[in-house]
Amino acid sequence: MNVLIVYAHPEPKSLNGSLKDFALKRLQDAGHAVQVSDLYAMQWKASLDANDSIERQANERFFPSRESKHAFENGLQSADIAREQGKLMWADAVILQFPLWWFSMPAILKGWVERVYAYGLAYGVGEHSDARWGERYGEGKFAGKRAMLMVTTGGWESHYSPRGINGPMDDVLFPIQHGILYYPGFDVLPPFVVYRTSRIDEENYGAVRDALGQRLDDLWTTKPIPFRQQNGGAYAIPALTLRDDLVPDRVGFAAHVE
Ligand SMILES: Cc1cc2nc3c(=O)[nH]c(=O)nc-3n(C[C@H](O)[C@H](O)[C@H](O)COP(=O)(O)OP(=O)(O)OC[C@H]3O[C@@H](n4cnc5c(N)ncnc54)[C@H](O)[C@@H]3O)c2cc1C
């Protein structure tokens, strides 16, 4: 199988750096082909702007989605974007690895998503009608591929528990797992999270590594998070609200998980 690790930490000697090296070796030893996009090492350009097209469609006002569609359809994307898209299409599984920074991914990784997820590739795919609202949330160009987050946090596990002050980790990660991964079609595996990283030392690092190793060994057999398919009948179209008779007492993020 082909695995792409998109890795966002500026320091190779960090905990994230160690875990990335470990993951790479573990996957390779298991016979998988692995590519790593080490965003800081690549000096990845984080900001989406008019320079992302080799040839602009119009020279006046910059319309991000329109330019993205035009560049994607006509082979006019800048080379760094096209290269990352090639890796995505090559991969059977994608791992996004990052330290949680301000309750989300580091800006450089968000910028990777914004620029690589072109119109026509990750969004704006499929027909909109009374029965379907594009190919997204369970359908799309990345359907059949698996994705998993590898995240480290300063906060304790209890801080991210169902009644923890930071909000439940499932909620914190929902915009990434449901919005960035499930939306274009990935099957999203439960995340691998390392909490309270300041407590990691030589002694307990082994346990973290072993737990990660097990998750990597199980990459092809772990059950994905059962997010509800958009076009499977659970949602009214085009309002895209969950049918009234389905879990009527549940609201918010949790309602979108079967
Ligand atoms: C801008 C910013 C925003 C943040 N926002 C949040 C937030 O919203 N929520 C939150 O919970 N946290 C937040 N944090 C904390 C952040 O998530 C953690 O600092 C980060 O996850 C730690 O990962 P690291 O790879 O940088 O760890 P490091 O600091 O590199 O390492 C952590 C510990 O692991 C040890 N270690 C590293 N490698 C090894 C090894 N090979 N063997 C044994 N021990 C090792 C180190 O000695 C250290 O004690 C934020 C931090 C920053 C800088």
UniProtKB/TrEMBL annotation:
Q: Which UniProt keywords apply?
A: Oxidoreductase
Q: Output one GO MF annotation.
A: NAD(P)H dehydrogenase (quinone) activity
Matching entries from SUPFAM superfamilies are given as: Flavoproteins
Domain (Flavodoxin-like fold) spans 1-214
A GO cellular component annotation in the UniProt record? cytosol
Membrane-spanning residues? none
Its domain of life reads Bacteria
Oxidoreductase keyword on record = yes
- Pfam families from the xrefs? Flavodoxin_2
Q: Which family does the entry's similarity section mention? A: Belongs to the NAD(P)H dehydrogenase (quinone) family.
For this entry, the protein name equals NAD(P)H-dependent oxidoreductase
Q: Which organism is it from?
A: Paraburkholderia ginsengisoli
